């Protein structure tokens, strides 16, 4: 079922979460062990991230040799496993970085064969060794271009040919939104204009970057609606789990942490106490958002379920 259909048929706020594929060489059971407890809250869908390729250096005689590899492959396979095991929808992330347009088309065709109806279209991050995002040769530069390719496929328009008669894909396409603007956008208004362009190209729903001040989400939604963006805007929530998140999250995602949260984390005696602080903050955040009638509460779990479980237990 499409994410938009789940939302339209729901009588209350839905619960969903995002997971990360295991590192290459590890099994899927650990992932299932973290998903299993969360099934109590009947998530209609689970997102599965896609990691772009990274450079690694292998010791060779006479020096180091640079190789390009993917350390967390298997997004589509994991989605198929989730759908088979739990009988719910899985949403693979489709990214620009690291994929040619042809590779993207192959991935989408595989999704169609597997009965995957939803995809999340993202530009993706820069490689670790790069200061800025560099488009892959033969790939897309912007998520809006990716949305266009997916929607063209829904019409039977492949990269080099069209199908007049056949079984077309019918993907529901999610895109990202940034309540505190994307780190590369010069202004929030510019970032909203870029979101509007993704919507114009056919995006069906938005999932936001994490935020810790609900007012920023409410203002973001209000500004989007004022621009004529009417599709669902799902808030993304990440609970603080360790003290170093105070430094890492603002640095990586260019987000602002409320001073009350910073003070509470600073006062925590260890990471167990930090996890409790983060869980309680996320519960209060989620409760206010739920009362405001958001369509879905979407949690960034990073594959660990205990804090997400405690948050969901308090709300669903």
Summarize the structure.
This protein is α/β, with parallel strands linked by helices and 316 residues long.
Characterization of this structure:
This protein has 316 residues and is α/β, with parallel strands linked by helices. The protein has a single domain (3-315), classed as TIM Barrel (Alpha-Beta Barrel), CATH 3.20.20.220. 40% of the residues lie in helices and 18% in strands. It has eleven helices and ten strands. The protein has helices at residues 3-9, 29-35, 75-86, 101-113, 143-154, 188-200, 214-226, 245-253, 259-267, 271-291, 306-315; strands at residues 14-19, 45-48, 54-60, 63-69, 89-95, 118-122, 172-177, 205-210, 233-237, 296-300. The strands form two sheets. Strands 1-2-5-6-7-8-9-10 form an eight-stranded parallel beta barrel, surrounded by six helices. A two-stranded antiparallel sheet has the order 3-4. Strand 8, helix 7 (214-226) and strand 9 (233-237) form a beta-alpha-beta unit. Helix 5 packs parallel to helix 6, helix 9 packs antiparallel against helix 10 and helix 10 runs parallel beside helix 11. The model has no long low-confidence stretch (mean pLDDT 93).
The poorly predicted ranges are none
Number of helices: 11
The portion of residues forming beta strands comes to: 15-25%
CATH class bucket: Alpha Beta
Instruction: Tell me how many strands there are.
Output: 10
Taken in chain order, the helices and strands follow as HEHEEEHEHEHEHEHEHHHEH
What general outline do the C-alpha atoms trace?
globular
Helix content: 25-40%
Question: What structural class do helix, strand and pairing data support?
Answer: alpha/beta
Largest sheet: 8 strands, parallel, barrel
